[in-house]
Write a structure and sequence with these properties.
Elements lengths: L4 E6 L6 H10 L4 E3 H9 L6 H7 L4 E2 L2 E2 L1 H8 L3 H25 L5 E5 L14 E6 L2 H9 L6 H10 L3 H7 L2 E4 L4 H19 L1
Parallel strand pairs: 1-5, 1-6, 2-5, 6-7
Antiparallel strand pairs: 3-4
Helix pairs in contact: 2-5
Length: 199
Amino acid sequence: MSGPKIIGLTGSIGMGKSTVAAMFEECGVPVFDADAAVHQLQGKGGALLPAIEDAFPGTTGAEGLDRAKLGALVFGDDAALAQLEGIVHPAVAAMRQEFMIEHGGAGLVLFDIPLLFEKGGDAAVDYVVVVSAPADIQRERVLARPGMNPEKFAQILDRQVPDSEKRARADHVIDTGLTLSETRQQVSQLVETLRQMGK
C-alpha cells in the first residue's frame, strides 16, 4: 500500500473552490487547505510571526499578522513576495506532511491549493480537479466580496493561469455555475469514480 491517492483541487478566484472542497469532505475525503494552514501559521500566536516580523518589521502584532500592512509591502513587489514565500512555503509543506501521515490509511486525500499550476504543484498530485464557472458568474461573485474592486480583480487574474488553460490541463472539471445540489452530485460521482480507480 503506497498511501492515499492525492487530488489537487484548484480554480481561479471566485470559482467556488472552498465550497467544492467542503463537498469532498462531506464525501469522506480528508482535505488539506493550504490557505487555512497559512492563516494558522500567521494568526495569533502563529509559528511564523517572528520570522515575518524580522523580514517585514511592523507587519505583525498581538493579534497576528496585519495582512493589509504586509499586503501593501509585497503586492506587486516580486522580490518581497519571493522572500515571504520562502518563509511560508516550507512551513506549509511540513504541515502537509503531517496531514499525510495522519491520513495514511485513507484511499483519497485532497489538497486545496489555489495556485496549483502557478507554483508547479500539479506534478505532486495524482489527479487535478479544477473548479470552473462562466466568467460573468465568477466576476459577480468576486466583486461582491468586501474590499474588492474591478482593478484588484484584474490584478489577481493577471497572476493566475487563465481558467481556460486550467480546464484544459485538468483531469476533471467541476462546473460550479450550476445549483449547489448539481455541483454536489458531480463531486460525489467523481469521488466514487476515483475510489474505483484506486482499487
